[in-house]
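Predict the 3D structure for this chain.
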Amino acid sequence: MNTARDTIFAFSAQIATFAISILSSVLIARFLGPDGKGVLAVLLRVAGATQAFSQWGIQETLLPYMRENRNSSKSLSGSALALGGVFACGASVLMVLAYPAMADSVLKGVSLEHLVGVMLSVPLTVLGLFLGRIVQLRSTRQYNVGQVAAALLSIGGYALAFWLWRSNVVAGIAGFLASQAISFGVYLFLGLRMRLIGLSIKRAVVRKLLGSGSAMQIGLMASFLATQVGALVLNAYTNSSEVGLFATAIGLGNLLLFFSVSVRLVLQNRMAETDSSEDLAGLTARMARHTLLWLVMGAIGLSIVGRMIIVILYGKAFAGAYLMLLWAMPGFVALGVAQILASYFVAVKRLLFTSIAAIAAVAINLTIMFALGSQLSGITAAIAQSLSSIVWLAIYAIWFSRLTRERILHLIPAKAELKYYVTLVRRALPQP
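Done. Predicted structure below.
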């Protein structure tokens, strides 16, 4: 298949998924308001941190493993799912036990019952991610179809939850649990239909996954903290309402990443079939340039209509999220391009690069937020996140250039590419 055609299909699927997820977010905002949404945002980020730890880098190591062992998906899936299940259950229990130590800081306003409820989702999330990854590396199109199907079914789960519990955080937790169970079920079905899922667990595969995953684990945890820690620290210093506004801004900003995620899905699928490092480098640089262009255009568009979208979808109570969104957007552009370069490092097993860059990003983010202390707000948290993401991309770009001998300027769109996109935009605009 043509790379451009696959990217367009993947992007369309991502947009459909995002539109459906926005409906879920609107349901949460309308029923719970800024305060309730803030509590739920904290819970979901704690679940995300637990999930990031539980993956142990295995999800990312599946790409290089599949490149080397293209006919061993069944033993790979059995071993990966066994490891994911053990890590997810253990990490969930540890997080619940740690609740008393965090109840007056990052988990302020969160009850133990709420935490237990959201921790039940972690095993489902981790296993669903592993299954989705295996399906994606065999067929990006099947993965995208499954993603849209899961998102559509999840809307029903959220609607049922809010019909049963109304304006209660429990409804948000129940809806999230249902969405993760649905995603797991969809990818399990696709994996079985594609004959990719097996129950065999091989010690050699387990050791290889653990070894490679361990090299990435610190970086993956740092990656999560660099992009998600803002809400947790904000909750410690401000209130649930401010966290709810910040979460709304970050959620909308994630719209920009749907294109980079789509490109990365197709890129990783191509990487799994490519043996030459030089071909990988050229493909990665080209995709990074086009991704940067689309992200910048998307950021400009979102800046123009962002306030209107927030007020119409979420209500006037969330209007304060607009300024946070504006300050967060440069970071989303940088993060989107960094995702493309990260795929190359993973494919060529330069896992340490991703870890060091992510650690630097989270260090900058936390340093700024803790330095502000009681002066921290949603806007300053958005600025801190943007600065850390820009540094993240800069580190990736320097290492990519040194590793591949591609000049850093090759990651910036050339004049011919700019003219091509300017022509496309002019054609799309109504003529006088």
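The chain has a mean pLDDT of 81.
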